[in-house]
Amino acid sequence: MSVAATARTQFMTNLRFRPALVLGLLIVVFWVFVALTIDLWAVYDPLKIVGRKLQAPSLSHWLGTDALGRDVLIRTLYGVRYSLAVSVVVVVCSVAIGSLVGAVAGFFGGWIDSVLMRIVDITLAFPPVLLAMAVAASLGPGLQNAAIAVIVVWWPVYARLMRGQVLDVISRDHIEAARAGGASSWRLLTKHILPLSWTPTIISATMDFGQVVLLAASLSFIGLGAQPPAPEWGAMISDGAAQFYSWWVAFGPGMGILTLGLGFNFIGDALRDILDPREH
Amino acid sequence: MTQYVLRRLISIPLLLLGVATVAFFLSHFTQADPLSALVSERQMNNPEVVAAAKQRWGLDRSVPEQYLIYIKNLVTGDLGVSFRTRRPVLADIAERLPATLELVIFAMLFGTVSGIALGVLASRFHDRIPDYLARLLALLGSTVPVFWSGLLLLYLFTVKFGWIPGPGRLDARAVAPPFVTGLLTVDALVAGQFGTFLNALHHLLLPSFVLGWSVTGIISRLVRASMLDALGQDYILAARAKGAGEARTLLRHALPNAMIPTLTIIGYSFAYLITGAVLTEAVFAWPGIGSYAVDSARNLDYPAIIGVSLIGATAFLLTNLITDVAYAFANPRIRLE
Amino acid sequence: MAGTTPLLEVRDLRVTFRNGVEIVRGVNFRTEAGKVLGIVGESGSGKSITMRAVMGLPPAGAKVSGSIRLHGEELVGASERRMRALRGSKIGLIFQDPMTALNPVITVGKLIAEAVRLHNPGMPASKAWQRAIELLELVAVPQPEVRANQYVHEFSGGMRQRAMIAMAVANNPDILIADEPTTALDVTVQAQILDVLKGLRDKLSMGLILITHDLGVVAGSADDVIVMYAGKIMESGKVRDIFYHTRHPYTRGLLSCLPTITGATSRLEPIPGSPPLLSARPQGCPFHPRCPMAREVCRAEEPVLRPVDNVLTACHFAEELRAEDSGRPNARAELA
To answer: Residue B105: its pLDDT value, please?
Structure first.
């Protein structure tokens, strides 16, 4: 059987009912749905004052109101837009940059590899949140700058991952065969090596969505990311910290971060089981 | 093994230089006017301060010269002056370091113990209920935002239950022990102030739990995998064939083997702890480097935040080195090479 | 000879995996103190699982039925507590690969001392340590005091095996089971280890069971032998009878695989094919697909173990083998 066919059969046998995967998909699909459609069915305006300040959860305001009298639940639901947008942009850019660097480093080896990996090591030497804070502070407040800061912190992870995979794939026989057959470096890289190297990156990227949401929210919590009055989750929790005795203000956005993170985690875990069954 | 340690040691200065270079870049090139990264807005009107800064950092010289001056300053411990406190950043950091150290140590203790316990449990009952529960607990630890869980738990235990004292490391009326290490628990014990010791412990309880829980997940996951690996080995069967019981096989035979790869994760979890410490300290008003970093970032205090990043990276590199060496030592096979 | 109580008596032993596959399908044998029983078979014959069942350590989830009597005490269904008391004290087990069977992070001395202390709870650590050194001496490990403080990877192959033997006989067991004790070793070391085992059998008056796929080991060291295939016993009897007058085509096939060193020009004939998968055993006699003598009845009916001449054999055509008896001795065997 061809390599592709055996891979396909293996894939099919690995597919079986996984409750965690279903739950994860439900959560993520729910949030995506909210992000896309909330304008149509939001009961309140997230930016307008719709009630008395700091009301505890009630029938008219399921998660109560915040310090300005805005509905916490609606703001929480709107908040997913910021988090999803940031995490998608960050993950895609980090994967792109990191994978490119890693592939080049692994493929060409030699001093290119050394130099590139030194840069990776240096970036990874910084505690992620501190580096993100430093970069975000240098660039100035705002969600865009926060996203850039997170990309700066995150890309080296994918560089290492891709490099490791490329090195592994290169040592395999059919690469030698293709090279002996006269394939050019570019062709070798794109047609033979890269297609086989994606798996750990995909798994990692899926799991990372949640972590990226967390890091971006952390920056907003500090005041470096989204700015008021945007209903971003991190910023909302910061409000909640200021309103310590009104626990509901922080409750909604925190649950948002938690559930979104769990959702992506479950999906990533299941992906890892399916695509890379020798783990576990 | 000495070869291995030497190789690792040699790479450190190079990385440190790289880290310093990044810091240089952040200090001098991200603002339109490099001066605004080194002198606060308020001080901009003060010609003396401005001149002193220009001199200190060589701002009228060429870029490579500035770089060398920057490195030289770093090596002599000059990380700049904080905009907020008007004190040298290094002094600020040194003053607040013990608080963070104490928090991180206790968090590490909690996270490691709970991680190992959950991992062993999960492996012993793998694919059964205790396994799923353990994995769920661990997962929550790594997905729950530390600044959120800290907040909610603080509310719960301080306001609702009143079990946990207010902010800070000690009650306002408690007597701080004389300075020995800066770790209040240790200093209190050394000075024989048992009441203060208990009070400090009391204050540490919730923040170290919240912070430690964030690493329980990664530790327990590896412990579980390593235990399952170890339990499949022949020497486990051999131990049973000798007449060893369940507990003995698990703890005396399997766990030591499982701990070897786990040591690396425990060391690297330090990174997670630093990340979490920054936010935990903000929530608990803990007077450490983390809250200093947060306040600095909030106020765009560039020297401070960049300084903290530098120190953080250095600490990071050193802990990784220590972890790698400890790993080499713990594995009898590598140790005896 | 008959008359003494069998040390170990196994009757109709069956071991079934969790998924329903029967690995050991009705095995019977017995052995006495001071005797060496060889169990021969290819991989997958069920020989190792049989012994693990005797120890009360079947694979996870497997079911054991039948009777296993040690000195008349029934082991099947015995409490885990009782089995733990017996393991390492009355029954010892040696594994094939000492590199993986000795814990890499515990010193060899501590491992042996543990075997002692597990069954002598009051014994102080120093005394157990002394005993460990004595045991290393017993199995002829040079410089035992130094070696006891070392880890398994610092030992050579033969020494590791000796250390494992020391650990298994720490409490003078009545019976020692050796699962492929020589397979992982050099040929030169193999003989030494077998000597150690036989010496211990004499010194400690143990029963010894040697599990192996190597007939040469059996020939040189065993008194009785069982030949297993596909979870059943094909033939059993005294070593001399089996080797010179086998009444089973499988055994004969195994014997023809042995090279002779006399320079005799008989050809080496490996048995064609391979042992059946556990899940896909053939009907009738399990060996019939590879058997040169297979006939219709072999496909239909499973042969029962019956006495033919001096052996017990499970073959429909054992009598024909008697007629073909070439009396071809194996020069590698050193039969007394």
So the answer is: 92
Tell me which H or E stretch contains C237. Answer: strand C232-238
C92 Cβ contact list (under 8 Å, min separation 6): B241, C168, C169, C170, C171, C173, C175, C176, C177
Could you list the residue range(s) of the whole structural domain that residue C263 is in? 248-335
In a domain, C175, yes or no: yes
As for the ipTM of the complex, it is 0.84
pLDDT (tens digit per residue) in B125-184? 888 888 888 888 888 988 899 889 988 888 888 877 877 777 778 877 777 788 878 788
For A181, the domain range is 18-279
CATH number for position C111: 3.40.50.300
Number of other CB atoms surrounding residue C306 within 10 Å: 13
How far apart CA A121 and CA A134 sit, in angstroms, is 18
| Contacts for A237 with CB less than 8 Å, ≥ 6 apart | A217, A221, A250, A253, A254, B145, B147, B148, B151
Are both C252 and C192 inside the same structural domain? no
Nearest C-alpha neighbor of B157 from the set B118, B195, B196, B209:
B209
Provide the 3-class DSSP secondary structure of residue C87: strand
Give the CATH number, domain containing residue A105.
1.10.3720.10
**Cα dihedral value A88, A94, A100, A103, nearest 10:** -110
Contact present, A174 and A143 (Cβ < 8 Å) = no
Query: How many structural domains does chain C have?
Result: 2
Decide if B326 contacts B259 (C-beta within 8 A).
Answer: no
Which chain B residues contact residue A245 at CB under 8 A? 155, 159
What are residue C236's DSSP bridge partners?
Answer: C226, C312
Q: Are residues C273 and C182 in the same domain?
A: no
Task: Write down the pLDDT at residue A92.
Answer: 94
Cβ(C319)–Cβ(C301) under 8 Å? no
Residue C62 pLDDT: 87
Would you say residue C316 lies in a domain? yes
**Considering its fold, how many domains does chain A have in total?**
1
The pLDDT score that the predictor gives to residue C336 is 37
**Which of C113, C53, C164 has its CA nearest to residue B238?**
C164
A42 inside domain? yes
Cβ atoms of B52 and B73 within 8 Å: the answer is no
Residue C64 falls inside a structural domain: yes
Residues of chain A in Cβ contact (below 8 Å) with chain B: 118-119, 121-123, 125-131, 133-140, 210, 214, 217-218, 221-224, 237, 240-241, 244-245, 247, 250-251, 253-254, 257-258, 261-262, 265, 280
Q: In B, residues 34-93, which contact A (CB 8 Å cutoff)?
A: 37
Q: What is the pLDDT along chain A (280 residues), one digit of tens a residue?
A: 456 666 666 555 555 677 888 889 999 999 999 999 988 888 888 888 888 888 888 888 888 888 888 888 888 999 999 999 999 999 999 999 999 899 888 888 888 998 999 899 899 888 888 999 989 988 888 889 999 999 999 999 999 988 888 888 877 777 777 777 777 777 777 777 777 778 888 888 988 898 899 999 999 998 888 888 888 999 999 888 888 788 888 898 999 999 999 999 999 888 888 776 554 3
Asked whether C105 and C91 are in contact (CB, 8 A), the reply is: no
Say yes or no for a CB contact (<8 Å) between A223 and B298.
yes
| Structure-token match 């891979």, residue found | A7
Residues C256 and C110 in one domain: no
Tell me which amino acid residue A22 is: V
